[in-house]
From TrEMBL:
Protein name: Pentacotripeptide-repeat region of PRORP domain-containing protein
First and last residues of every PPR repeat: 183-217, 218-252, 253-287, 288-322, 323-357, 358-392, 393-427, 463-497, 498-532, 568-602
Keywords: Repeat
UniProt source species: Gossypium davidsonii (Davidson's cotton)
Domain of life: Eukaryota
Residue stretches spanning the membrane: none
Family: Belongs to the PPR family. P subfamily.
Length: 628
């Protein structure tokens, strides 16, 4: 064959490939693939069977791509990377159909199948179809690689969920099972996958479909579904699934009944508990420790302690020994009713029966005593738990500090914190925040600042709100200079001062007659992009009016109205009242005109001030006449 004829043949093959690539109708891979995802970027989903391709070398023949990949996989998985470079011209012909053919050839060699699947997905970047995923899931499940199969199934769920034409994965799995070995456990895995993703409606639909095709999911799968429904408060659906289990003959286990016990408790229908327990026994299951603990906790939450203690006694009669959870739930119920002494007696009974209390048991009692204001007993329990090798946690510290705080014994709270730190207990920042804020609310800003300085050396970083609270307290106590020092520290640390702190500083400065400093603070606030409020407007105007600087007061009132659309009638009335005291009604009327043009509306108090001004002006005029 001449060079010219070879060139012509090559051109013919290229043209033929282009023709087939653009015009061959895509046929469905199977009868159910009408529902298959159509988001595959590689459009060659049907093999190209042009006989002229066979005249090309193997590495350039699209019909041979499946054989080449299969041969490479059988030799050595690591050769796939080399193969990628070797058959680079053929990669565009690797579509979903070819991928499926390779997977089916290696359905008995899951390692090679998975290597190929990952190579296509990760290295080649080809977007796989849902059927490709279904085949690899079937292959892995058949080979008992359930963990890998589950991971890919969850990936497929996400893949389908993100597509606009969301398909039924159950149908896809059924469709693909006709062509390869499969284990029905994939249907269990699909239900679990949906539950794991929080898609419980899809899980219920799949559960129903699985039953319709005659396969019974395992009781473990049913329990997983029940648990997912319970977690998302699908209470009615829980009972529907349970009834369906009974109808098709899926025998529940003790875990099933424990989930349903939780359903009862969450539904608030604890009155039917005894009936349910009898049903459990009829099914051959004795309520276990988990069942009793769930019910006792529910009764205690609903303040039905008599029923809770009835179950506690029944446990002993039936040979179920209460554990820490049982006792702690009962103690918590007693403490909520203010029966802390009885809770403590139950605590001693628990210890006497050989149970070692944990942090939750101690915290329950400590919290109960703190709520009753019995801080001495609480502190005794803290020492006892430390002596037993149990370190107090953040809840312990918080409830004790708050207990002292409610009694106004902040010094005792501080001493407790120091003592706990000496025992090596970590004190959370929220406790320090509580102490500082409590001292501020008792108008003890110097004590609060002292604590802040000490704990900052230990790495405590106060929140901006703590600094702002401190500024507000200093201002409330007329210690403006100290408040300004705190603000300066915030600026140095690049912590933003908020409106509340600026307002406190401005109000305090005006109160001590430093109006110009207050106005400077407002300008600083505006530069920080913090807008003023009517209170700031009011206090500035009142301060300038007190100094009889009426023009400045009017200027500020106009500025707030024009710039911030703040039309504070109270501020306006302060200005009117100041004018009336001077008795110059001409200026007062001119002010009225100017303010009303800006948008201020007089109220009854404004009218009262104006009338008062008119009467005063009349009186002054009469006095002037009499004097002359």
């Amino acid at each position: 064959m001449t060079r010219a004829s070879l060139s012509a043949l090559n051109q013919s093959l290229v043209n033929s490939a282009n023709f087939y690539g653009n015009f061959i109708t895509k046929l469905p891979f199977s009868s159910s693939s009408a529902s298959s995802l159509q988001t595959i970027e590689n459009s060659q989903c049907k093999p190209l069977l042009n006989p002229l391709y066979n005249l090309l070398p193997e590495t350039r023949n699209p019909n041979k791509i499946v054989d080449l990949i299969s041969f490479s996989l059988k030799q050595n998985n690591s050769q796939l990377t080399l193969l990628q470079n070797h058959v680079k011209p053929l990669i565009p012909h690797l579509g979903c159909h070819e991928i499926t053919r390779v997977l089916l050839r290696f359905q008995s060699d899951c390692s090679s199948a998975l290597t190929f699947f990952n190579w296509v997905k990760n290295d080649l970047g080809i977007k796989l179809s849902s059927h490709n995923y279904c085949y690899i899931v079937h292959i892995l499940a058949w080979s008992k690689n359930f963990s890998l199969a589950m991971n890919l199934l969850c990936e497929l769920i996400d893949f389908v969920k993100d597509c606009s034409n969301c398909e039924d994965l159950f149908e896809s799995l059924v469709s693909c099972s006709k062509d390869c070995n499969f284990d029905p456990v994939v249907f269990d895995m699909l239900i679990k996958g949906y539950v794991r993703k929080g898609m419980v409606k899809e899980a219920i639909r799949t559960f129903t479909n699985v039953l319709e095709v005659g396969y019974l999911p395992s009781v473990i799968t049913c329990n997983c579904l029940l648990n997912g429904l319970l977690r998302l408060n699908f209470i009615d659906q829980c009972w529907l699934v349970y009834e369906e289990m009974g109808r098709v003959g899926i025998r529940p286990n003790s875990y099933t009944f424990n989930i349903l016990t939780n359903v009862f408790c969450k539904d608030g229908n604890v009155d039917k508990v005894n009936e349910f327990l009898e049903r459990m026994e009829e099914e051959g299951f004795d309520p276990d420790l988990v069942t009793y603990n769930t019910l006792i906790s529910s009764y205690c939450r609903k303040e039905r302690l008599n029923d809770a203690f009835y179950l506690y006694r029944i446990m002993y009669r039936r040979g179920v020994v209460p554990d820490l959870v049982s006792y702690t739930a009962l103690m918590n119920g007693l403490c909520k009713e203010g029966r802390v002494r009885e809770a403590h007696q139950l605590f001693h009974r628990m210890v006497h029966r050989g149970l070692n209390p944990d942090i939750v048991s101690y915290n329950t009692l400590i919290s109960g005593y703190c709520k009753e204001g019995r801080m001495q007993e609480s502190k005794y329990l803290v020492h006892e738990m430390i002596g037993n090798g149990i370190s107090p946690d953040s809840f312990t510290c918080r409830v004790l500090v708050e207990g002292y705080g409610k009694q106004g014994r902040l010094v005792s709270a501080l001493n407790l914190v120091v003592e706990l730190r000496r025992f090596g207990v970590s004190i959370s920042s929220s406790i320090y925040d509580f102490l500082i804020v409590s001292l501020c609310r008792e108008d003890r800003p110097f004590a609060a600042k002292n604590i802040l300085g000490r704990i900052s050396q230990d790495g405590y970083v106060p929140k901006p709100d703590i600094y702002n609270e401190l500024i507000e307290t200093f201002c409330r106590c007329n210690n403006v200079a100290d408040a300004l020092l705190v603000k300066a520290e915030m600026v140095r640390k690049r912590i933003k001062v908020n409106l509340v702190a600026y307002r406190a500083l401005i109000c305090s400065s005006c109160r001590i007659g430093k109006t110009h400093e207050a106005e400077s603070l407002m300008e600083e606030m505006l530069k920080s992009d913090i807008l003023p409020d009517p209170i700031i407007c009011r206090v500035l105007i009142q301060s300038y009016c007190d100094q009889m600087d009426i023009d400045k007061a009017e200027s500020i009132l106009s500025f707030f109205a024009k710039k911030f659309r703040i039309f504070d009638t109270e501020s306006y009335n302060v200005l009117v009242s100041t004018y009336t005291e001077s008795g110059d009604m001409e200026k007062l009327m001119e002010l009225q005109d100017r303010m009303m043009k800006l948008g201020f509306a007089p109220n009854s108090l404004t009218c009262k001030y104006v009338i008062h001004g008119l009467l005063k002006a009349k009186r002054l005029y009469k006095q002037k006449l009499l004097g002359s």
